[in-house]
Design a protein that fits this description.
Mean pLDDT: 80
Order of helices and strands: EHEHEHEHEHHH
Number of helices: 7
Radius of gyration: 20 Å
Low-confidence stretches: 1-12, 140-150
Largest sheet: 5 strands, parallel
CATH class of the domain at 16-136: Alpha Beta
Helix content: 40-55%
Oligomer: single chain
CATH topology of the domain at 16-136: Rossmann fold
Length: 213
């Protein structure tokens, strides 16, 4: 059986999470749960306060209540995106519906969770959202006029450097390599660089893409 090196991604527990909810009890309960899990937490009681806080002290992720007076969660999310703020947003509500979930995802939410929820579930969603956002920052696809369309841009994290070294070792071996990750996290960039680092670099790189339906 062939060896399949798996590239595991970096996850930090020092991330800052902004919880936005007009109910103080909801903010405090969720905040304490996330603090217990090692996250830094900030709180906001409405959408305007949340936007002001992000402008003065950026966070790594926002947990945003849908139903709030004056400015609901969807309005907050749309304004953030209009301002160019791409912070990952997890929308939560006690009044969930398919239509609201679809609207939130179309506006750029990472996920839509209905109350009541299990603490372990929202903690897992938070972890996955942070991991995906970090990968999107650390691995970029650059288009260059000189003809090299894909270049690996590394972040400063020790884990990312470790991943690159693992990829380079895999490139010079005859092992089959499986790259796992969500869409947009840089799998094709890594695949192309593994090809470039290998002794097959002078041969064509086959790229299979799903056709639009």
């Amino acid at each position: 059986m062939s060896s399949k090196p798996r590239l595991d991604w970096f996850h930090s527990m020092s991330d800052k999470i902004l919880i936005v909810d007009d109910e103080a009890s909801n903010r405090n309960i969720l905040g304490q749960e996330l603090i217990h899990r090692g996250y830094a937490v900030d709180l906001a009681g409405d959408g305007r306060e949340a936007i002001r806080k992000l402008e003065s002290a950026p966070a790594d992720l926002m947990i945003l209540d849908y139903m709030m007076p004056a400015m609901n969660g969807l309005d907050v999310l749309k304004e953030l995106r209009a301002l160019g703020n791409e912070i990952p947003v997890i929308m939560i509500t006690a009044y969930g519906s398919v239509e609201r979930a679809v609207d939130a995802m179309r506006a750029g939410a990472y996920d839509f969770i209905t109350r009541p929820f299990e603490p372990d579930h929202i903690a897992l969603v938070v972890q996955k959202a942070l991991e995906r956002h970090r990968l999107q920052r650390e691995v970029e696809v650059l288009t260059e006029e000189a003809g090299q369309r894909h270049r690996l841009v590394m972040g400063d994290s020790p884990k990312m450097r470790q991943v690159v070294e693992t990829a380079k070792r895999a490139a010079v071996s005859n092992a089959t390599v499986m790259l796992l990750g969500e869409s947009g996290t840089g799998k094709e960039v890594f695949a192309r660089n593994i090809h470039k680092w290998s002794n097959r670099r002078d041969k064509p790189f086959p790229s299979l893409r799903k056709s639009a339906t």
